[in-house]
Amino acid sequence: MNGKLSSGTTPHEADPPQASNLALSPEAAPPDTAMDDASGINFGPLPPFVPEFPVYIFYLGERKHDDPNLVTQSHLEILKSVLGSEEAANKSMVYSYHHGFSGFAAKLKPAEAEKLKKHPEVIILLENRKLGLQTTRTWDYLGQFSTPTSSKSLLHETNMGSGAIIGVIDSGIWSESGSFDDDGYGPIPKHWKGQCVSADQFSPADCNKKLIGAKYYIDGLNADLETSINSTTEYLSPRDHNGHGTQVSSTAAGSFVSNMTLLGLSSGSIMRGGAPKAHIAMYKACWDVEGGMCSVADVWKAFDEAIHDGVDVLSVSVGGSALKTLDVEIDIAIPALHAVNKGIPVVSPAGNEGSRSSSVINVSPWILTVAATTLDRSFSTLITLENNKTYLGQSLYTGPEISFTDVICTGDHSNVDQITKGKVIMHFSMGPVRPLTPDVVQKNGGIGLIYVRNPGDSRVECPVNFPCIYLDMEVGSELYTYIQTRSSMKIKISPYKTIIGESVASKVAKSSARGPSSFSPAILKPDIAAPGLTLLTPRIPTDEDTREFVYSGTSMATPVIAGIVALLKISHPNWSPAVIKSALVTTAMKTDPYGERLTVDGGNYKVADAFDYGGGLVNLEKATDPGLVYDMDINDYIHYLCSQALYTDKKVSALTGNVNNKCPSSSSSILDLNVPSITIPYLKGTVNVTRTVTNVGRVKSVYKPVIEAPFGFNVVVSPKKLKFNKTRNKLAFTVTVSPGSHRVNTAFYFGSLTWSDKVHNVTIPISLRTRFIDNFFL
């Protein structure tokens, strides 16, 4: 099927609402023509409006009744205890969370909320915050070829994910896209309980054997907005007005779509998702407000129903900002815990706050947190000098070749109207000063614009029909030096070409948020990295005549991992979410597929480390046979919660629905949480850390440790061998760490521990920092 819809294709022959501001958001714009290759939906300012009755979320733990109606009735009784009547309770209620866990959202005065907070059944009270929405080449780059290179590849062993259901919590879906075609699909899985709702320009007929579920949730957001979202600016249905949800869904599980084209990009290639025969269930909880906004209340309801409906994996490309509040870590962590405890892996982005330390979000150990890397693909424009010397810049310029034209250099805007006409402007963009923009150059008769910038500087939006090219500072300085030796200088600019392969370095995206976790620095985050920049995905038909577009961000890397997780669930149906995470982390690559070390995209050109990419770049074929795994269950997660002093024994019992579940003893250390990494942010002396591994490889096997100690630290492992057999498939080991030569507060240093049986190399990252004085400025 050709994936290109006609520009007039709309649902049910109706006209779409006015085009959204998607094209203005950094994530929607091509990476070389965007305002900033940080690439995430802009969180933007919160609405200044403060409602008289704000929405509050009350979390009560695990359900006490199997009947959801009884659960809802118990919520109304709690509200009634403060509001005085059943009528007032019903009027106040926004949502009852009664499937996957117990809780409710309600419109209350602040004083009423504070009173309810003291109710003995309430574990946590949250204000209804706003969250932001955070391919063709991707799968070949990761070695998952559509055409089999081996009959034993994960993609083909799992029949491309057939039978798996990927739930997506996002901005909706454009069901008419070729990515959601169901040709050749078998029956819908018997365990599926969901449905496709009928609403604004969407009906059950828009679903099929590919898209098997579609719901939407808006009450939480509307309750906190001064002007409610309506059908003139959005689809009040599962239909996607923003485009983000359609892109995420197609990346995770899009069907095969041939002859993909975008401005000549990837012409003739095939686009598909990671698990192209998996089913999709869309839960629309994010809306086209300020580029993409979701309320916590709506997201919780989406989780609640997804758990009930029977999804196998949840892809949730939303999150707040770790740089603004620590409350962000509760926003999706609680419903995600209930999903994971029921065997549903939850995959979420590390965030798009950029390369600042401790900017990573979604840091709970039960969430699979994804960083973004580039692909081995570059969109390059050739600049030719009169002596035939050439320079490569980055651009998506699609217009005709610009023949030899005068070029002039500038570092400011002061006299642009006097120097621009008939020339190409070479503009040095330095630091925070807003650079010269293409529209100013065009307005003053300029022929083209070349930006010379440091890798860490922001970019501006560039049209594809005007030469707007980026050069890094080194190349730009070389060109500038040459120009200064000539009385006049002319250059030729060619349309862009796509460069693919080993010569294009793979990097952790500048936009991808970094560790360590500000909420719990002893838990390594992110967990894993996947391609998230310049992914070719479907685009909803608004005012553009193309259905495919290039998108970037950790929210695009997230569904890459979600698709892989779906394949692993099919291949290993008994693996827990923690085992799946462990398999991904311990087999990940520190290099790109060509063997080159991953670096970071930014101003310092450094080699990437665990705070950039977690375990490394996903290696899906290795992940299906990891050898050993680090498993966790609800007891491990309770250990984590209790270490944060957020929970008492009573709250833990309510959360799990089991009176026997309590916080571990005070002597239990969070450093012993069985995560596939070791992170010690406050080392003063010798520390012993324990881990337990489970053998999922050959029954009789012997593993020996290989230690790459962080610089200046001593790392010793005991025992020196792990011997597995029929009766011993789970063994513990101890890692003893000491500061070694360090005697002052240090930065983090990185290393690794690998258990090897000469067939499997099971590697976990080690991140260590000393803290002899409780002042990090010393």
Question: Can you tell me about this structure?
Answer:
By secondary structure, the chain is of the alpha/beta class. It folds into 5 domains: 11-37 and 131-375 and 514-622, Peptidase S8/S53 domain (Rossmann fold, 3-Layer(aba) Sandwich), CATH 3.40.50; 55-127, 2-Layer Sandwich (Alpha-Beta Plaits), CATH 3.30.70; 377-500, Glucose Oxidase, domain 1 (3-Layer(bba) Sandwich), CATH 3.50.30.30; 633-669, no CATH class; 674-778, Immunoglobulin-like (Sandwich). It contains 19 helices and 38 strands. The longest helix is centred in the last third of the chain and has 18 residues, at 554-571. The protein is globular. GO terms for molecular function: serine-type endopeptidase activity.
CATH architecture descriptor of the largest domain: 3-Layer(aba) Sandwich
Taking all Cα atoms into account, the compactness measure Rg is 27 Å
Query: Count of DSSP helices?
Result: 19
Reported for the largest beta sheet, the result is: 8 strands, mixed
Regions with little confidence, pLDDT below 50 for 5+ residues: 1-47, 135-139, 543-550
CATH superfamily of the largest domain: Peptidase S8/S53 domain
Percent range of helical residues: 10-25%
Structural class: alpha/beta
Cα distance spanning the termini = 62 Å
* Rounded mean pLDDT score: 83
CATH topology of the largest domain: Rossmann fold
Strand content: 25-35%
* CATH classification class of the largest domain: Alpha Beta
Shape: globular
How many beta-strand elements? 38
Task: Give the domain tally.
Answer: 5
Key words describing this protein structure:
alpha/beta, Glucose Oxidase, domain 1, 19 helices, Rossmann fold, 20% helix, 778 residues, single chain, disordered N terminus, 7-stranded parallel β-sheet, Alpha-Beta Plaits
